[in-house]
């Protein structure tokens, strides 16, 4: 069962005030650094942010800093002053209630994404805000919790023949975003299977729970759409950036993920359509049920009420009722009633009510 | 319970006629002035608008005039002539039924906003129209009533290290708008909690009141949307202004609140979606209830009508009814009826109608 | 009760053929003329259109010709030849089934508007087509009937201090349009009050009439929207006209009425939303009523059908029914039946069905 | 009753293959020619297309060729080679399942329209595809069947004072399109009257047929919209053509029919709105009927079931039932039952169920 | 019955990794080559991709390579390196879950389409992804399975008089896309017939299956729309390509298929409208049925419950009931009951309930 946790809010503070809004998700902030060019690659886990400074000065090498956990504000602040990052960017990194967006601060590009991770065991989807800052030769990524969705990328980086090694950090940024969007496909496939199975069941039998499940899926689709719509703008915004940070060779790849995003959005809209038509199915199943109940009542009442009336007639105490004294009076009436009942039953049988 | 008060109207008057449209909300018009630059700050409450004139002539300082209460038209007129403000602007300030908008009158920028203040005690939302006029070094804000939503800003202004002190009045204008939008987040959070709780209850049990509550929330969302949609245009309009009044450093901040506005609008649209799907839930709950009622009726009628018929048969007065004279006639019929009733009950039990 | 009268049509005639399409609404065509500049003003009612020619030649003065009634085609034709007006314009003036629009014929601007006048006594809204033609120093307005909606304007014109006297005819044209839009506010307020009151009643009690009233309001909103949507284009079109006919000072005022138009359109859309959600309320009220009816039936049937069965049992004529001969048989059965009935009643009471 | 006939299809053929798709509608292809300038006019019916060639070479004269019937492909082919028409155009002329469109082939403009002709006797709407090709001084129109919708135009052409004679073929093309659009007004008026009448009846009484009629109107509106939406693009496309074929004086007229098209589209959308709200009315009328039926049942059952129970009680055969032996027992019980029944009836009367 | 098979997914792989996503559909990859110019044509089936290289070098000739089956990745790779194709293109060819799209890689244009093939025997629609790459003089088409939809084209190519022979590969590409779109017309016609027939049945009689069929058609329309919407962008994108690959003469033809696409999309939207209005019809048919059932019950109960009461009265055992001893008591009561019953029946007859 998918749950989307509530988030805190930050109202009334001065813009630029650094406060981490969101639950604490990791005990310790974990900083990993990868320095690479087409020939060599160094990977290291840092204890303090200061250790990364020497790496930053090597010209011609690319530099990937990954920060897991946003609870230590001083780390974010230090990175901010180190890489000359605008206070609004730092604020946005810490406020995990952001809408996905892309902002071009000339010296760097700032991107916020929503990573959706399907936890199949708990049947839960975790939403993790991922911030990516990249300039000419550095890229910094921030995650709320330590879910290593980027480890396949890290593996690919180690392969010297990989495209990643031959291209700059803009290509790495594209790969990070691509990894995020790939996860949406997984989530949607999971939803698609669930909804399809649910619809198959609905067509057989419905219960008062049905509408609650539909409502829950609808809400999930709203949550997904909320993360996806801005993604489209984000990527098309990146394609239009006119700085050197994004090379032309990378732009072709951006076109590709733009396409993927549209595909995911289309699917979400389709599921919304399907879910809303499932409400029609559900409501019509209720009406059908009602019709079935009423048919039972009508058949029983229509057969027995006239019979009861006949019996009532011969229960009257008039002195002068000749039928009562006939020898075959009782059997005749019983036969008549049996005939009447059978005829009525046959009539309903013909009308397919029974 | 949220209420949106009705407003008066002004039809048939000459454009530019200054009449305050709206209820009287403060006894006295209160004028506060803050004069500041990066080094010093002076704050003062004025008795008459004339006292502000000396401050207006100090070059290099910024100047914030705050007017609470719109009932004294002569005050507004004086400010108008003092700062050379277009009659249409003055008219719009006084007519509190404005749609949020931004207008660029070359020498100044005029902005109308709707501040929504949640009065938790009365469970009421007050809508207050806020007008902001800002030129190169002055900013004038008008409020309908004395709700000091800007006091945190005033506190921050006193801090010499604050961004506010280092930047011009355009940054202060941004901060005022930001404070207004922040309040929308609070309002929406409040609605979100209420609607969620209401939906949880709805899924358990519904009453004829339910549809009225949904209708009320729908109306509230329409009111919110009405204030929010124009806000989007307002901010994007400000970003496109090509005068010196808005500095480039401030434009980045405007991008940020544009983003916030979109986020609020998205949420309102989502709540509208959710509310309209709650109508489906409610209607289906009515159908379910009906089905339950009909099941009770059908079960009772189907069990007892045939039994009554049997009793009726043996109440007939035919002379020649041998069963009536059998020794075990009565117990046999009673047993038969018990069996019939039990079978029918079991049948309904199996069909889950009982 | 609002009524929108049907209009005639003109199909298959040569474009430019002058035929008045619409009912006759005034007995006589009434022509009023106002000649004014910032210093003097002359107002006169004309018997024939020829009388206005001398006024037309006075340079530096503004000239307002108002024609009430479109039945005398020769008057329209004469004005057309006098002021050099395109045949299509003349055709549009006479065909009162026009959609509001603005057309720029270089030497003049042609505007068609729908004036809505609320006749509170008859509870009727009259739609009157108003055509405004204005060039550099003349303005000609045509009305279908003699409803003097422009008399306040005429009064203001007489005041030498008025903006109207200081500005050209483009400002007067703006004031005419403003007067028309102001009337929409009145109409909408009237509708708003009615709909609100109606909704309050609906929440208490509904009748089969309810849906008819909703339908009527829906149709009214469609009619309003039909007049309002084109108004938006009309005004934004006027703002973009690149001729000298519209001065820059007037453009600021056009921005203002554009805003008003948007506000009215928003309200109409909101009422449409509210009306369509009222259908939900109405349908749910029908279901609730049905549930109430069924509850009554079920309660009565469920209590008395078993009791009738018991009575039926002791009405059987078996010889060997020992209970019948017991001394306390009758009271015992009566007590049992009373108990059974009370229990069932209590059960329904608990279920809130009674 | 409106019928829209099905059309054939042409799939898998080489683009440019000339096959007439559609039913045969005329026995013979009829070719009429009109040659005119401001001074003289010649009208002639041709036996063979070759006869028109001499007319084509007269400079300074306009030339209108009208072809009724598309069954003789060789005629179309000949015209194609004569006037140098692109094979795709010829294909489109013959394929009568076209969507209305305008295509600019530099040397000529090609327009496809759907003429709707109301056959009041058969209560049927015939859709006829009309293709218009016009170049600098020639215009060729093709119709599927011989419905002389253009005869009023031909009459007007004969009038030497007519605009048609003074303007070029582009003005004639405008008049042809105008004639087509005028017919839409007639059709819509007819629909409008029918729908209005139908709605009036619906508000009084509904039958299971009602929904079928609504559905039929809905389909009709879809068919109309299908022909109308592309018309809008068609005309705005013609306005933007930057060749000499369309003169500036004609552009003003195009603006006028653009306006008419919008007006027709608006009406269709309005009828769609009204029809979909009629479904609500119908569904609510079904619920109201159900409520009425249930009220009858409930009233009858609630009055008589308790009375029957009372009668049942005194039909019991207990030995010791003192009431049975009272002198006034019978009248007392009868009176009690009458009272009970009357009370219940009064209760339902008060509840307005009777 | 239409089925849309599920597809596999490819998540987490490096962009550019070549993996065939989709079911295996052909045993062997089949490569056909056609080399043609306006004078000669050679057609050949290749065993290995290397055999095509000599043909590629002939200047002035056009070259069409058709690959059926995507299972041999090495074939795709070889073609990729041979014709210098971007890795992303190759990836897209193999991933058969693509959305239709067009991409301009300067040296070639890449197009993905969804071919829908109606298998009338199995009553199934097969979706086949078709990729078309075309440069200046070569065109390569990839299909998932060996359905020879292009054989009519191949036949036309053999005709030296065909347009295909006179034009370049861009015209051939247009013809391929045209063939794909033509198939959509066939599919839609099939759906149209089915839906129309289904609607006719629905108007006569509905069953609980009805809603399932509607739901299935709705899903089919969603699938169709999903393939069609991007097609529109695809073609308009091709029209805007500013390279020599697409000649101006071909652009006119693209305009034509753009038009066809719009026509298909319009039809799909219309069917969606019609299907959703069919749900209304279905729901109203359920209500009508319910009304019919309730009428039967009400008529029976209303006639017999009062009669049973009368019989009950005369079944009472009071000593002093004079009617019981009247000579004509019994016939009188019977007559009275017959009269009562007949009257009620007549009443229902009049109310059209019987």
Largest interface: A-B, 59 and 58 residues
Overall helicity of chain A = 55-70%
| Shape, principal axes of CA atoms of chain A | rod-shaped
Strand sequence of the main sheet of chain A, in spatial order? 2-1-3-7-6-5-4
- Secondary-structure content class of chain A: alpha+beta
CATH class of the largest domain in chain A: Alpha Beta
Question: Main β-sheet of chain A, in a few words?
Answer: 7 strands, mixed
Termini of chain A, distance in Å?
A: 40 Å
Name the CATH superfamily classification of the largest domain in chain A: CorA soluble domain-like
Indicate the proportion of strand residues of chain A.
15-25%
What CATH architecture label of the largest domain in chain A applies? 2-Layer Sandwich
Total E-strand runs of chain A: 7
> What is the CA-based Rg of chain A, rounded?
35 Å
**What are the low-pLDDT stretches of chain A, counting only 5+ consecutive residues below 50?**
1-10
Number of helices of chain A: 10
- Give the oligomeric state: homopentamer
* Mean pLDDT level of chain A: 84
Q: CATH topology of the largest domain in chain A, what is it called?
A: Beta Polymerase, domain 2
Along the chain, the helix and strand elements of chain A come as EEHEHHEEEEHHHHHHH
């Amino acid at each position: 069962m998918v749950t989307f946790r509530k988030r805190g809010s930050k109202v009334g503070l001065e813009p630029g005030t650094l406060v981490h809004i969101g639950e604490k998700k990791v005990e310790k902030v974990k900083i990993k650094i990868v320095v690479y060019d087409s020939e060599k690659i160094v990977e290291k886990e840092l204890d303090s942010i200061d250790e990364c400074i020497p790496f930053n000065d090597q010209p011609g090498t690319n530099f990937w800093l990954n920060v897991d956990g946003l609870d230590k504000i001083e780390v974010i602040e230090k990175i901010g002053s180190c890489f000359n990052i605008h206070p609004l960017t730092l604020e946005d990194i810490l406020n995990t209630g952001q809408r996905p967006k892309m902002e071009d601060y000339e010296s760097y590009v700032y991107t916020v994404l929503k990573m959706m991770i399907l936890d199949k065991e708990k049947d839960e989807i975790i939403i993790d805000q991922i911030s990516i800052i990249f300039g000419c030769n550095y890229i910094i990524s921030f995650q709320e919790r330590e879910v290593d969705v980027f480890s396949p990328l890290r593996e690919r980086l180690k392969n010297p023949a990989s495209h990643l090694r031959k291209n700059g950090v803009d290509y790495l940024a594209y790969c990070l975003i691509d990894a995020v969007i790939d996860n949406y496909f997984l989530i949607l496939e999971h939803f698609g299977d669930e909804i399809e199975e649910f619809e198959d069941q609905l067509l057989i039998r419905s219960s008062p729970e049905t509408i609650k499940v539909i409502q829950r899926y609808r809400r999930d689709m709203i949550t997904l759409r909320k993360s996806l719509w801005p993604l489209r703008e984000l990527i098309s915004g990146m394609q239009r950036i006119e700085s050197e940070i994004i090379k032309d060779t990378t732009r072709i790849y951006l076109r590709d993920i733009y396409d993927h995003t549209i595909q995911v959005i289309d699917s979400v809209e389709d599921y919304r359509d399907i879910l809303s038509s499932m409400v029609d199915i559900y409501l019509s199943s209720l009406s059908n049920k009602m019709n079935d109940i009423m048919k039972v009542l009508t058949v029983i009442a229509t057969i027995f009420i006239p019979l009861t009336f006949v019996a009532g007639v011969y229960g009257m105490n008039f002195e002068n009722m000749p039928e009562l004294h006939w020898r075959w009076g009782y059997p005749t009436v019983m036969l008549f009633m049996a005939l009447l009942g059978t005829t009525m039953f046959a009539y309903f049988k013909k009308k397919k009510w029974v």
